[in-house]
Design brief:
Its cofactor is Zn(2+). Helices cover 41% and strands 16% of the residues. It is an alpha/beta fold. Strands 2-1-3-4-5 form a 5-stranded mixed sheet, sandwiched between helices. The model has no long low-confidence stretch (mean pLDDT 96).
Length: 192
């Protein structure tokens, strides 16, 4: 069982004091916050491609690296990183071949129906309450457009200082190559 394997490994990890090599403070050494996708290919690749080590950055991950609401948990984490954890720069990093660019809300809902998690009545009640599951489950059509939309949301947020650069990058999940989408320094310089 996976849980037992994890607990056994953790016991050895703690007993052998392997944690010592990862000691850091809660403040990011590189004074940055990264918003990215939860894609399993990026777990180790993204930090290596950015030359990040334990304690260097605050990394926030979710499906597609999407900031879906200006006052949701992702944005709250960014604001906290800026004001409470001394992050001076924000990096929005999407990736090519992201599953959220091929999301299938209808298929996801059907899978939930097939598993008996929800019924058509529940879906109708959600729709009646104004919740559009298709829209909520949809990712994006184009990763660059998604990155730019996230940057606009962050840059124009009333709680984000205008002098904080918000960068946009797209990473190749196979090679780690970064493509520059938006240079936040240029945007900050123009707005001064």
């Amino acid at each position: 069982m996976l849980l037992q394997e994890i607990l056994e490994h953790n016991g050895k990890f703690v007993n052998d004091e392997e944690f010592v090599q990862y000691e850091a403070t809660k403040f990011p050494k590189k004074r940055m916050v990264v918003v990215s996708c939860m894609d399993a290919r990026l777990v180790e690749l993204l930090p290596k491609a950015l030359d990040l080590h334990n304690g260097d950055a605050k990394i926030i991950k979710n499906a597609g690296g999407i900031i879906s609401h200006p006052f949701g948990s992702i944005m709250r984490s960014i604001v906290t990183a800026v004001y409470e954890l001394n992050a001076d720069e924000i990096f929005i990093i999407g990736h090519h071949k992201c599953g959220m660019s091929q999301s299938n809300p209808k298929g996801t809902i059907q899978k939930a129906l097939d598993r008996g998690v929800v019924s058509q009545d529940v879906i109708k009640n959600l729709e009646y309450a104004g919740i559009d599951l298709h829209k909520w489950l949809f990712g994006f059509d184009n990763v660059v457009d998604s990155i730019k939309a996230n940057i606009d949301l962050v840059r124009n947020h009333p709680l984000i200082p205008k002098d904080v650069p918000v960068h946009g990058l797209a990473i190749d999940p196979g090679t780690g190559k970064l493509d520059l989408v938006v240079d936040g320094y240029q945007v900050v310089a123009v707005s001064k």
